[in-house]
Design a protein that fits this description.
Layout (H helix, E strand, L loop, with lengths): L3 H9 L6 E13 L3 E8 L2 E8 L12 E10 L7 E12 L18 H6 L1 H4 L3 H23 L3 E2 L5 E2 L11 E4 L2 E5 L4 H11 L1 E9 L12 E10 L5 H21 L1 H7 L11 E3 H12 L11 H15 L3 E5 L12 E2 L2 E5 L1 E6 L2 E8 L4 H10 L8 H8 L5 E7 H9 L20
Parallel strand pairs: 3-5, 6-10, 12-13
Antiparallel strand pairs: 1-2, 1-4, 2-3, 4-5, 7-9, 8-9, 10-11, 11-18, 13-16, 14-15, 16-17, 17-18
């Protein structure tokens, strides 16, 4: 990816005062009496054009799609440090109605419901563009890093006959007269593909029918999943995620500096991520901040925040791995700790006090998996196709799922996960 300043540097270098043309949407106009400064919104960012006389504008207004022909010159006060001088516009299309909000303002100051209702327009603002360029970079880094580690990308069904996570938070649908569900996770399929490719990953939507109305929940979100075979410990999965985060932060710092600066983002350090047991960190945070532990089997949102604060104060880290979650709160495919079966060989990754990843080692032995299902009152016959992989041999394996929107939200300093989703779906929203 080339940023605007780099692109214009390339254009101007050795070609100063030579003719050039660009295209984009009119983001703002400033009439200075005889001269009009026109800001174009291009795929590379904002560009300033200087038009002399009304005829040079071709009647352009905000949100007209135009081409602009002129000559590049240095101008430190312009976006990118250059501007297109003596520009003449050619209007390609005109809006049928004025904008409902002033997109040229640095911050729109809209309430969330209004902002989401106007999403197709609001997404045109530079700040929104920056958020989703960074989100695209997360997916790019995820793919690039895992490909470099010999993972194979897969694509799994989102209409399934059984839920991977169990529970009631699953969307039901009629599939030609058969009972079906929207996938909560690609878990069954990515485990299956470990038996085929050994290392696999997927970037795809998942669905949760949770009746939440919080700042951290969506009913459809994008999950970054990977699964890897022949592991000796679930900590290898954690190490792989840390490697991805290092790759991501290096990429963002190298190629997305302008977007980070626009959002005021300071990249977190990921060279050392502390890891601490679930029961230990619950106790340590409660003792340090003086509150009572109410749920011994899970982390409440307030506890996640406290643990994130603890990790920052004690270890200087925005991230912390919380390991060995209680078996009672983990899915049936999570491997129990042989040293203490009340806990699992699993983890969450918290980022600035919010869970962004869940992962761990999976049960790979057929008899062990069937026994765990039966102990939970599940009927193994309903999972016959899934259990086929165990019955016919699987290596020790594990993996994780990262919530793309949550990771984006925390990285960009947003206050609601809906702002990290192009067109969010929650309990009430099906449009736009």
């Amino acid at each position: 990816m080339m940023f605007l300043a780099q692109k214009i540097d390339t254009m101007v270098e050795g070609r100063n005062n030579q003719a050039d043309s660009i295209h984009g949407a009119v983001h703002a106009l400033r009439d200075m009496g005889g001269i009009t400064f026109v800001t174009l919104r291009t795929r590379h960012g904002l560009v300033q054009c200087v038009c002399a006389g009304k005829e040079a504008l071709d009647g352009a207004t905000e949100e007209c799609a135009v081409t602009a022909a002129g000559t590049w010159r240095l101008e430190p006060r312009a976006p990118g440090g250059k501007e297109l001088a003596d520009a003449k516009l050619t209007v390609l299309s005109r809006p049928a109605a004025p904008l409902p909000v002033p997109l040229s303002k640095k911050k729109l100051e809209l309430n969330l419901d209004t902002e989401l209702a106007l999403r197709p327009v609001v997404l045109r603002t530079p700040r929104e563009q920056a958020v989703f360029r960074i989100q695209a970079a997360i997916c790019r880094a995820f793919r690039d890093f895992l490909q470099s580690r010999e993972f194979t990308e897969i694509h799994t069904p989102k209409v399934v006959h059984a839920g991977a996570e169990g529970g009631a938070n699953i969307f039901r649908l009629d599939y030609f007269g058969k009972k079906a569900f929207l996938a909560q996770s690609p878990q069954f399929y990515k485990q299956t593909m470990v038996g085929v490719f050994e290392r696999v990953y997927e970037v795809a939507p998942v669905f949760r029918a949770e009746k939440h109305a919080t700042q951290r929940h969506l009913n459809e979100y994008t999950s970054l999943d990977f699964e890897m075979g022949y592991i000796q410990s679930f900590t290898e999965v954690m190490e792989m995620e840390q490697g991805f985060l290092k790759h991501l932060m290096a990429l963002l710092g190298r190629e997305y500096a302008a977007d980070l600066a626009l959002l005021g983002v300071e990249l977190p350090q990921v060279e050392q991520i502390p890891a601490v047991r679930f029961d230990e960190i619950k106790r340590l945070a409660a003792e340090r901040y003086g509150y009572q532990i109410r749920d011994p089997y899970d982390l409440e949102p307030e506890e996640e925040h406290a643990i994130g604060r603890y990790a920052k104060e004690m270890w200087g880290s925005d991230f912390v791995f919380v390991t060995h979650y209680p078996s009672k709160k983990r899915p049936f495919y999570a491997m129990d700790d042989p040293e203490d079966p009340k806990f699992t060989l699993s983890f969450d990754l918290l980022f600035r006090g919010l869970e962004v990843t869940t992962g761990g080692q999976r049960v790979h032995d057929y008899a062990q998996q069937v026994a765990k299902m039966e102990a939970r009152g599940m009927d193994p016959a309903e999972f016959e196709s899934y259990l086929m992989i165990h019955k016919h041999g699987m290596p020790p394996h594990g993996g994780l799922g990262i919530g793309l929107e949550r990771l984006t939200m925390q990285l960009c300093g947003l206050d609601n996960v809906r702002k990290a989703c192009l067109f969010p779906r929650d309990r009430t929203r099906l449009e736009p």
